[in-house]
Structures are given as C-alpha cells and as structure tokens.
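Q: Got a minute? One more chain.
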Amino acid sequence: MGIARKWIFPIIRILIFVAIAGALVKIAFFADVTATTDAASPTGEIVEPQVPVTVGTIQNDVTLQGTVSVDAAVEVKATLAGQVREVLVSPGQWVDAGTEILTLRADVVNPDGTAYVDYETVVSPSAGVLSSFTALAGQTFAVGDDVGKVAPPTFNVSGPIAPEQQYRLLNQPTEAQVTITGGPAPFTCGSLSIAGPAAGADGDAAPSAPTVTCAVPADVKVFAGLAAEMTLAGGVAADVLTVPITAVQGASQTGTVNFVLPDGSTQSRPVTLGINDGINVEITGGLVEGDMILQFIPGAASANQPGPGECIDDGAGNTVCG
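A: Always. Here it is, folded:
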C-alpha cells in the first residue's frame, strides 16, 4: 500500500494532467476545420417573392405640385395703320372688355386716286388694369402693333406633369382639385388644359415637361407665388383584377408578367392593362383571380423593389426585404 501511495498514484495524476493539457492544446490550436467549414456552409435557398392576382379597387388620382400665378396680360392690338388721333384712357386705369382705348386716323388713297380719311377705335379685349400703355397723340402704329396690355385680375394654378404620368389619364380631365399651402379649403379648378413641352432656347437645350394649367375661381382668394397641390382624377376601377405594378413589364395598355407554373418554374405571359394608382395596376386580360406571378421583374430596377439590406412595404400590407 505504501508503494502505491508513493509511486503509482502520483504517476496516474501526472498522466491525467498531461492528457488534460494535450486536449486543451488541441482545442486551442488545432480546431476541427471540417466542422467549422460545415457550419458556415449556406443551407438556405433564394426564392423569388410571388403574389397572387386579387380582386380590388384602384383609385387612379395623379397628384402634381404646382404654383399660383397671375394670368398673362392680354395685348391690345392696333386695328388700323395710322396716327393716334385721341387717347381715351390712362395707364393703370381699370378697363372692361370693350372699353375704348384710343382712336386711330389714316389717310387712305383709292385705286382711282381719290383719297379719304378713315378712323378706327381700338377697344380693350378683356377686363383688367391697363398696363404698358405709352401711346401719345400723333404716334404712328401699323396694323397688329401692340398699343398696350390689359392685366386681368384672375389667377391660375400650373404644374409640370411627367410624360409617363399622362398614361394614367385615360381621358384628359377638365378640372382638378387644388389645395393651396396655408390657403383656403380645397376647391375645384376648372378650364384645365395640358400644354405640350416647350422647346429649349437653343438646339442643345432639353425641352421642358408638359404643363397642366387650370383657372382659379373668381371667389377664391389667392396670391401669386403660393404653392399648390393639384389632384387630377383619372378614374376609379372597382372589383377588378389587380397586381403590383412592380410585377408587370410595361405600364400602359399592354405588358408581360412572369407566370408561376405548377412545377415552380416561370413563364412570360402577355397581359392587357387598365388604370393604375402607382402601386397596383388593373389587369383586363391574360390572368384570372388566384394566378401566382413573380412580384418583381427579374433584373429590373424599381423604386418599389428593395435593395440589398432594405425592407419596404409592397403596398399590400407585406414587408419585403432585399
């Protein structure tokens, strides 16, 4: 028993300590590379998000940012080539449509050589304040020359519309709902028109965007320079087939979607389109309710498609992350 205590037990303890030390060294410096590699290996699968074709309602309103402006002054034109005989109004005076502005006198020679004196009275083409009026008695004008201008007391709201937004207006509206920043309650702005883009000042300048303009009612008090929001009603489609606009290649009349087949593969399928609200688009042909399609066109950049590390609301109450 004395020999065991003196030699055997100490040797066993030394062997145990050596084994423990060896294990610690292996763990610290010789980790299992295979296990680490396996843990870092990807196990997931990238799946393109899919959405079903659903029935819904699309309110197709186009909202524009605009500005309140005074209506352009109307030019007063000379209607006879001759001299001013008499000036009948003063600069800055209020005139009604048809107010006499001045009288022109001209000596006219007939083909047979006889002569006579012709008189013509120039009248205001519209109501407003007479401006840029410097005509004097004895001054000579040709037919069509500007005698002065009449600045009307009326206002308009105008704002640019992107060409692609016009696709959403299946029929050009005749009015807009206007909200003035810090102004009165929203009101209907009539006599709406859409003017085409104006060419640049030189050949290299890019043309400006088309402009939407409407007339402010006379009983609405506004001031030039105020900011305004214009809402153009493009129509409402109720109980129609809808899909996210990000799922369609094309935005007006016709397009294509990536139809999901039963085996999970996809097929490009043509569709016909109705109105859209910027988030969803009406499907008028090519799909039926419940069909599954890809939510995004593969490879197509979209403001509604999330980038790497991004999460967005797809417009249907779902959060989609890139």
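A: The longest strand covers residues 227-244.
Q: Perfect, thanks.
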